[in-house]
Structure to design on (329 residues):
C-alpha cells in the first residue's frame, strides 16, 4: 500500500502550505523538528497536514506497528538534558502523554518492536523500553559503554544493536535461551560511530564515524568487524542503505552534501549538494526516493534515487532531523 501511494505522488517544489486541521493520511511521513514539534506530512502532496508539540529538543521518532502512535525521544540540550518521551496520537494529532524517565537522561535513539518503544539513555549508558499498553518503562539493560546513542531491535526482539560513540564500538546484545539474561558482544569500529543501518538481508551493520570520513561494516553472524573504508565527507551522523542493497546514503553535515555510495563496491557514485547541516535520512520502502532533513535550512530535501537529484523540498519547521513512516492499519 505504501509503495503504491508513493508511486502516485507527484514531484513538487517547496511545499510550505500547512493545514493544521487536515486529517492525518493513512500513510504519513513524520518529521521531528528540534524546535519541539512533530510535523505530519502527506507524502503525496508534500504538505504538512498537522503539527504536534513535543518535549524539548526531540531527536528521533518511531511508530507503533498499527501506525496510530508515534514516540519521540526528547533529548534536551547539554545544559538542560531531556528526561521524557512524547507519546503522540497520530489520528487526533495530539501528544497524549509525556513519559517521565526519572533518573534516565538524554534519551536519543528510539525503535518500536514487540509492542514497546526501545530507547537509549545516553547519560546513563542504558537502554530502556516503554510499554504503551501499561504506560510504564518496564525494562532496562545497561550497555556499560559511553555515548550509547542509536538503537535497533530485531523483529523477534532477541537481538539489540547500539552504537556507542564515546567508546568507539558497536554493541550486539543477544537474549540467551528463554531466560531474561542478555549477552553483550562489543565490536570496535571507526571513531565516534553514531548513525548506523542494517543491510536488507540482516547480515551486516554499517556504522558511520561522526569525526572522520569512515564507515565500518560489522559481520553480524560472526559478530566481528568485516571492513572499514574511507568516504568523501567531513562529518556524518546518519547512514541508510536502500532496500535493494544497491546504494548507501550518508549525510555530510559539515560539507552540506548527501554522499551516495555503491553498496557493493563501497565507492561514491554521486555527491548531491543539499544545504546547511543535512542530518536525518529516510528511504521509501520501494527505494525510489529518499528524504533528508536539511536542518540548517529548515527543510526536508526529497531525493529521486533513480536520477540521483533533488526532486523537491518540504518546509516542516525549525531544525528538522529524525523521521519515520506511519502506515495506519
Amino acid at each position: 500500500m505504501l509503495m503504491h501511494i508513493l508511486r502516485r505522488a507527484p514531484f513538487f517544489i517547496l511545499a510550505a502550505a500547512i493545514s493544521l486541521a487536515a486529517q492525518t493520511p493513512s500513510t504519513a511521513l513524520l518529521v521531528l523538528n528540534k524546535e519541539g514539534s512533530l510535523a505530519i506530512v502527506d507524502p503525496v502532496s508534500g504538505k504538512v497536514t498537522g503539527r504536534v508539540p513535543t518535549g524539548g529538543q526531540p531527536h528521533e521518532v518511531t511508530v507503533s506497528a498499527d501506525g496510530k502512535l508515534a514516540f519521540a525521544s526528547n533529548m534536551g540540550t547539554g545544559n538542560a538534558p531531556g528526561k521524557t518521551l512524547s507519546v503522540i496520537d497520530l489520528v487526533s494529532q495530539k501528544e497524549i502523554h509525556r513519559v517521565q524517565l526519572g533518573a534516565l537522561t538524554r534519551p536519543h535513539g528510539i525503535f518500536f518492536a514487540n509492542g514497546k518503544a526501545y530507547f537509549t539513555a545516553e547519560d546513563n549508558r542504558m537502554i530502556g523500553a516503554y510499554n504503551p499498553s501499561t504506560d510504564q518503562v518496564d525494562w532496562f539493560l545497561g550497555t556499560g559503554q559511553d555515548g550509547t546513542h542509536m538503537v535497533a531491535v530485531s523483529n523477534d526482539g532477541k537481538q539489540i544493536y547500539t552504537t556507542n560513540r564515546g567508546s568507539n564500538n558497536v554493541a550486539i546484545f543477544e537474549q540467551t535461551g528463554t531466560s531474561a539474561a542478555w549477552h553483550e558482544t562489543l565490536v570496535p569500529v571507526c571513531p565516534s560511530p553514531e548513525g548506523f543501518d542494517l543491510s536488507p538481508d540482516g547480515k551486516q551493520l554499517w556504522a558511520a564515524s561522526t569525526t572522520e570520513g569512515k564507515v565500518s561494516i560489522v559481520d553480524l553472524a560472526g559478530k566481528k568487524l568485516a571492513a572499514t573504508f574511507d568516504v568523501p565527507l567531513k562529518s556524518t551522523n546518519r547512514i541508510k542503505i536502500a532496500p535493494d542493497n544497491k546504494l548507501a546514503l550518508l549525510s555530510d553535515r559539515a560539507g552540506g552534501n548527501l554522499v551516495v555510495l555503491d553498496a557493493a563496491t563501497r565507492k561514491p557514485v554521486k555527491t548531491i549538494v543539499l544545504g546547511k547541516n543535512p542530518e536525518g535520512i529516510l528511504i521509501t520502502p520501494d527505494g525510489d526516493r529518499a528524504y533528508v532533513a536539511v536542518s540548517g535550512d529548515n527543510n526536508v530535501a526529497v531525493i529521486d534515487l533513480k536520477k540521483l537529484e533533488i526532486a523537491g523540498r518540504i518546509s516542516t519547521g525549525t531544525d528538522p532531523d529524525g523521521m519515520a513512516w506511519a502506515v495506519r492499519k
